[in-house]
Design goal:
Elements: H1 2-25, H2 31-61, H3 64-104, H4 107-190
């Protein structure tokens, strides 16, 4: 089950990296290429959403005791998805403004606005990447802690099992000793009193 999730996870990472790169390129492309790039990004965003749905289904099939770390990773990925959609909307707004300015003949202001939007989007993408890296590191650490806890529980279970076996053996030995003592006491109690003759 976890292997399926990790496979979807890798596909999601590759796909979102491509989307991030394309969103950053949108403001710098010629109009015809921009239109095609926008359509491409929309398609890939839908594919990313489908991957998230598959990952969510996989998490629901994981046993509750192991589900926590996967749920944390899902929350991080959903936040990343929301950030990508927001950045894409802003990129499309910048693209629409540029097209409008070109139609109105306002090339100078369009160029300045384009550079400003590009710098703004680049800074946002860098901040998003840093947050994603931090979230992934937290997820890895959480997974390691969970694995250690499972290993400790397994060791504790073995110790309890061995203690129960020793307790059973002790009870059996005590029972055997009790029966031996009871038999000895009965033989003593049935022995006739004899008085030595001189």
């Amino acid at each position: 089950m976890s292997s399926d999730f990790e496979g979807y996870e890798q596909d999601f990472a590759v796909l979102t990296a491509e989307i991030t790169s394309k969103i950053a390129r949108v403001p710098r492309l010629p109009p015809d290429e921009k239109k095609q790039m926008v359509a491409n990004v929309e398609k890939q965003l839908e594919e990313a959403k489908e991957l998230l749905e598959q990952m969510d289904l996989e998490v629901r099939e994981i046993p509750p005791q192991s589900r926590g770390m996967y749920s944390n990773r899902m929350r991080s990925y959903k936040q990343e998805m929301g950030k990508l959609e927001t950045d894409f909307k802003r990129s499309r707004i910048a693209y629409s403004d540029e097209v409008r300015n070109e139609l109105l003949g306002d090339d100078g202001n369009s160029s300045e606005n384009q550079r400003a939007h590009l710098l703004d989007n680049t800074e946002r993408l860098e901040r998003s990447s840093r947050r994603l890296e931090a979230g992934y590191q937290i997820a890895v650490e959480t997974e390691q802690i969970g694995q250690e806890m499972l290993e400790n529980l397994s060791h504790d279970r073995e110790k309890i099992h061995r203690a129960r076996e020793r307790l059973r053996e002790t009870d059996a030995n005590l029972g055997k000793s009790s029966r031996i003592l009871t038999g000895m006491l009965r033989r003593i109690s049935w022995m006739p009193d004899t008085v030595p003759s001189y």
